[in-house]
């Protein structure tokens, strides 16, 4: 069903998880270090990376930063730390989801399928583009351009922009945006939206202090204003 790269210094866990996902139909590659993971990512071009945070040498945060320098591959972080600052750090760094240890394999598999579906890295779909004036969003390649110039967005920023842009003029509440971008299990984490709207405006708007694309309806939510 998908080509997966699993990264964890616990070799026993990797072996069990590899067997589980292989039986589910996935092609699985495993590595036990960050450096090996980056090499495998370049060579194998997986559809998704499952990445442990706590590893000796290059930890998961460092690996994630290196991944985002070169790749848009979706990343699910495995971590025993799920306090809000840690979760926000991961999302700000470009992580697509979190799974807390200990976890059930069925839960991780469900998260993998959900992230693949949201990111467009699953089965190939028809080419689609969203266009508003000089702004172009390619939903298949995950490329965003304004006046022909490439704008580098994290996968989460891209999904947030696409969610707003697919229905221009519609005002989404923070809860609706969290459900669309992160999933229903994050409905109580509406603080993510304000932070990501800020990041998105900094990258997307010609003048972030006077946004022309991403607008807010006071006490209601946010919407995309088509040119």
Distance between the termini: 39 Å
Which geometry do the CA atoms define? globular
Taking all Cα atoms into account, the compactness measure Rg is 18 Å
Strand content: 15-25%
Low-confidence region ranges:
123-127
The CATH homologous superfamily of the largest domain: Response regulator
Q: Biggest sheet, strands in spatial order?
A: 2-1-3-4-5
Structural class: alpha/beta
Tell me briefly what this model is.
The chain is of the alpha/beta class.
Report on this model:
The protein has 227 residues and is an alpha/beta fold. The protein folds into two domains: 3-119, 3-Layer(aba) Sandwich (Rossmann fold), CATH 3.40.50.2300; 129-224, Arc Repressor Mutant, subunit A, CATH 1.10.10.10. Helices cover 41% and strands 21% of the residues. The chain is built from eight helices and eleven strands. The protein has a five-stranded parallel beta sheet, with helices on both faces. Strands 6-7-8-9 form a four-stranded antiparallel beta sheet, covered by helices on one side. A two-stranded antiparallel ribbon has the order 10-11. Helix 1 (11-23) links the parallel strand 1 and strand 2. It is globular, with a radius of gyration of 18 Å. Residues 123-127 have low confidence and may be disordered.
Protein topology:
Layout: E1 3-7, H1 11-23, E2 27-31, H2 34-44, E3 48-52, H3 60-70, E4 75-79, H4 84-93, E5 97-100, H5 105-119, E6 129-132, E7 135-138, E8 143-146, E9 149-151, H6 155-165, H7 174-181, H8 191-204, E10 214-217, E11 221-224
Parallel strand pairs: 1-2, 1-3, 3-4, 4-5
Antiparallel strand pairs: 6-7, 7-8, 8-9, 10-11
Helix pairs in contact: 2-3, 6-8
